[in-house]
Design a protein that fits this description.
With 251 residues, the chain is of the alpha/beta class. It is built from 9 helices and 9 strands. β5 and β6 form a beta hairpin.
């Protein structure tokens, strides 16, 4: 029998504590596959903040630093500058990185810190009860705005990749989705480019993953939550690469 696929052996055999259908598990696996393929497991350190994202160190056998809420990129900046030979990544949700951590995110990218950011956008503050986040879609209902988001009262969602791509620092920025096998393959390819940009010394890597929070969407099944990504989330947040380092640009 030919082995077509193998589980990365540093994914720990632990009970999955995310909600059924949660996108975080997919990103965890893609992260491990990319780290294995690049051969950097022993030189990689992850930084995670408060929120659903903080659970990552329960499932992956890597060195991790837990940051205070929103400060993962501040921690990552210090870790990378003190250890420039290490591969440093942050694992953050949309509420963490683009609400309380907006300043850290924008200024780290503006400075061109040579780190990699995994930014999981499920349009909610998921861990704390489904409150409105900076990426909550127009009309989307949350526990803090059950009538739905309105631009005149709350403002419009932040398109993070588009915002960061206006900064002049060199790096890689992409938005991917986790709703179909084809999109998941594209997500892995983007994540690999993000790490390669750091490893080559060219700059930062930033990948936004459009995921879903089945519990807060209150749909009938995880499948419907995944379909919601394609039918709603990716319509407001278009997929694609927004910035490439020089080595990846066509001559």
């Amino acid at each position: 029998m030919t082995e077509l696929y193998k589980r990365p052996d540093f994914i720990l055999d632990e009970p999955f504590t995310y909600c059924p259908g949660c996108s975080h598990g997919i990103v965890h696996r893609l992260l491990c596959e990319v780290i294995d393929e690049l051969g950097i497991r022993g030189d990689t350190v992850g930084i995670c903040s408060i929120g659903c994202a903080v659970r990552i160190w329960n499932f992956i056998e890597l060195d991790f630093i837990q940051a205070t809420h929103g400060r993962a990129l501040a921690f990552a900046t210090g870790a990378k500058r003190a250890n420039p030979d290490k591969c440093i990544f942050t694992y953050q949700g949309d509420g963490d990185a683009m609400s309380i951590g907006t300043a850290e995110t924008i200024h780290a990218i503006a400075r061109g810190e040579k780190v990699t950011v995994l930014f999981v956008n499920n349009t909610y503050f998921g861990a704390t009860g489904g409150q409105l986040a900076p990426t909550t879609l127009p009309g989307q209902k949350t526990t803090t705005y059950p009538e739905g988001r309105t631009a005149d009262r709350i403002g419009n969602p932040i398109r993070t990749c588009e915002l960061l791509s206006t900064l002049d620092s060199e790096g890689y920025i992409a938005r991917v989705a986790l709703d179909t096998p084809a999109h998941i393959r594209q997500a892995k390819a983007a994540l690999k480019k993000a790490f390669q940009t750091q490893l080559s010394g060219e700059g930062y890597g930033f990948v936004e993953f459009l995921g879903c929070c089945p519990s807060n969407l209150k749909l009938n099944s995880p499948v419907e939550a995944w379909e919601w990504i394609g039918n709603h989330s990716s319509k407001y947040f278009p997929l694609g690469e927004f910035k490439l380092p020089r080595s990846m640009q066509e001559v």
